[in-house]
Amino acid sequence: MKERTSIRMNRAEESKKKRNPACKSKGAATQPHSGMIQIRRMVPSDLPEVERIERENFSRPWTAEDYQSFLDRADADFLVAAADGSVVGYIGEYGIPDEGDITNVSVDRRYRNRHIGSRLVSELIRTAGERGIRKIFLEVRESNAPAIRLYENAGFRRMGIRRNYYSAPVENAVLMMRGPEEPQM
């Protein structure tokens, strides 16, 4: 299993929302109800919705069994963002003191541009810190500018490139790290 992240914006939709937030053109995806977002630990009953978001966002999605194997581990933190009774995003990290590795981050496309990804990253940094994690590493597709920007805003810095790290399609990964000296979001 390769670690990866997915936070993507559809620029045309973003531009349309800026011009007219109430715009509902024919065939346009409607925005879901904007209920309060709750960040909490992932539980087994979340896995069908996590798997749905995973399939929508990744070319090589993890299965519910893959996630369950991490939920059973004491050295892992997997969190979800929930709204209106549904999972709308998730993040995962595992490691040993004092280093951790973010595995997956994804937000349901209908809930993007609401700072859910930032909230998930911020809460994961906090909970990982409670477990003694002081450095957090991650890999992100080189072309995923929105995710790279989110991580940089959270205090991660670029450490290097992993050549041909991803498949389907083949792409380099940017290796990023957040150390104990980085400020919390």
Question: Can you tell me about this structure?
Answer:
- With 185 residues, the chain is an alpha+beta fold.
- It has one domain: Gcn5-related N-acetyltransferase (GNAT) (Aminopeptidase), CATH 3.40.630.30.
- It is 28% helix and 33% strand.
- It has five helices and eight strands; from the N terminus they run βαβααβββαβαββ.
- Strands 1, 2, 3, 4, 5, 6, 7 and 8 form an eight-stranded mixed β-sheet that branches.
- The protein is globular, with a radius of gyration of 16 Å.
Q: How far apart are the termini?
A: 29 Å
CATH class: Alpha Beta
The tally of helices reads: 5
In total, the number of domains comes to 1
CATH fold call: Aminopeptidase
Helical percentage = 25-40%
- CATH homologous superfamily annotation: Gcn5-related N-acetyltransferase (GNAT)
| Structural class label | alpha+beta
SSE arrangement, N to C? EHEHHEEEHEHEE
Largest sheet: 8 strands, mixed
Strand content: 25-35%
Short description:
The chain is built from five helices and eight strands.
List the helices and strands and how they pair.
Layout: E1 4-6, H1 11-19, E2 37-41, H2 47-57, H3 64-71, E3 76-83, E4 86-96, E5 99-107, H4 116-130, E6 135-141, H5 145-153, E7 157-166, E8 171-178
Parallel strand pairs: 1-5, 5-6
Antiparallel strand pairs: 2-3, 3-4, 4-5, 6-8, 7-8
Defining key terms:
185 residues; Aminopeptidase; eight-stranded mixed beta sheet; alpha+beta
